[in-house]
Amino acid sequence: MTTTTDRPVQQRPAPGSVRRTAAALEYWLVQYRTVWRGTVVSGVLTPVLFLTAMGVGLGALVDDAGRLGGEYLLFLAPGLMAATAMQTAEFESTYPVMGGIKWIRTYHAMLATPLGVADILLGHLLFVALRVLSVASIYLLVIALFGAAPSWLALAAVPAALLTGMAFAAPIFAFSAGNENDAGFAALERFVIVPLFLFSGTFFPVSQLPDAIEWVAYVTPLWHGVELCRGLVLGTAELGVSVAHVGYLTVCTVVGVAAAYETFRRRLEKTG
Amino acid sequence: MPLASVPDVAPPEPLASLIHARGLTKRFGEFTAVDGIDVDVPRGEAFGFLGPNGAGKSSTMRMIGCVSPPSAGTLRILGMDPAADGPAIRARLGVVPQQDTLDLELTVRENLLIYGRYFGLSRALVRERADELLDFVQLTDRAKDKVEPLSGGMKRRLTIARSLINDPEILLLDEPTTGLDPQARHTLWDRLFRLKQRGVTLVLTTHYMDEAEQLCDRLVVMDKGRFVAEGSPRELIARYSTREVLELRFRADEDISVYGEKLAGLVERIEVLPDRLLLYTDNGDRTTEEVHARGVRPAGTLVRRSTLEDVFLRLTGRTLVD
Lengths: 272, 322
Description:
- The complex is a heterodimer of chains A (about 270) and B (about 325).
- Chain A is an all-alpha fold and about 270 residues long.
- Chain A has 11 helices and no strands.
- In chain A, about 50% of the residues are buried.
- In chain B, helix 3 packs across helix 4 and helix 8 packs across helix 11.
- Chains A and B meet through helix 1, helix 5 and helix 11 of A and helix 2, helix 3 and helix 4 of B.
């Protein structure tokens, strides 16, 4: 038989941090190969169904009332794009993270190799970023096909949606790694994600909300994402306001990454 | 600037000692899992940590594997400090964890390929090594199958193949055969024995005395975070036990301690277990006759060689496996 130890593989230096992070990302891509078809189908169907039912169908009624001061489809589509980025990020940052820690224990497998906690975290976040990026790109394409992207600035809505997604993914990574089991994920969905989806200016302007709640909406990352995407897709974005939105979402992302690193480090060191 | 600063680094360790620990300690809050142990493992040795569950074996392994930082003490692996050179050390280790971390949704071969990428190995090299290793652990015909339906023994063999993808200098095995049936265990031991013959340094934990006897050149008996004895299996048995053991079994309704008193002084040491008496003797057959001469009629007798189980019982007053 062939021997396995006579080749000096071990003399190689350990890979640097960029290659380590890339290797962690590669795992999630390999894993994604087994499910990618389903995600592409839902990536296309979701915007088509939502824009048809709510944008075109419900939109006709809203437009007849004439109180929005514009076409409802145009108002709705970019908001849904940002909200879908949030939902994709949430989905990819809950169960898979728990799986990496507890069920499939991928993170533990990686930790036995040159990969460290930072590599593992960043590699996985990069994969979530790619997922959000692809979902947002498909969304924009469908919006354009519905004739709801009047400005070339709309192309910038893709990175804006990506940033919106990461502003959720990073803190949710921290949340997921801090949970002992998946019971918290249903609560996250019910008490955070769904309310944000409904009340962050996606379906109607937050100025319609009672004043106290309106201010809550301004604090949520999704409102900033929705406003940013809407301004870009419609071509009405103002520079100063957009920069403020980007700044807010960036802060959420950076704080989330720091929190996730700390929770990952503690959790992965504790359990074998 | 202090003029006469004394460097607080230890002199470089001789590279003969792949693992070097002094006063190695791991605490979790108030609980001390590993309590100041000293270890040296030279290249090529098969070294074992033997002890019951909760003795601190896995915590020790996780520190050696550079995933869990020591709470106190010195630790050098391959001459390097895990705190500073974790990735460089782990690049030269192979790890077989207690609980499998295989990806059940991927195929057998995919599990090896992606794991090799974590070590920065090229795809071409990883493919070549994956095929060699599948052959080594006799899983070539399952290469394209998903991991999920494999038997426990096959999964364990795959984990071992995976741990060898980077051609490690030290292989860390945490309870490598726990939960496997006897045949699967022997297959695994055979593979590990071959690795040892090729010069791979093996470090393993086990609570199976037969596993320790089969694989280890030297071992430490661990209890409550400390070492209670150290030596080769043969040395430990010679030092802490007798050549033979006479086991006397009695009917369940009998009070065994009465027989213990009746036989007192017959041999150097008698252990009273819930279901049997162990008489430590150099001549089991002669002691059997003497037992009968004292009018004790056990339901069954067995003369056997001393094992590490007896060593452990002597040192801790408890059995290894409950």
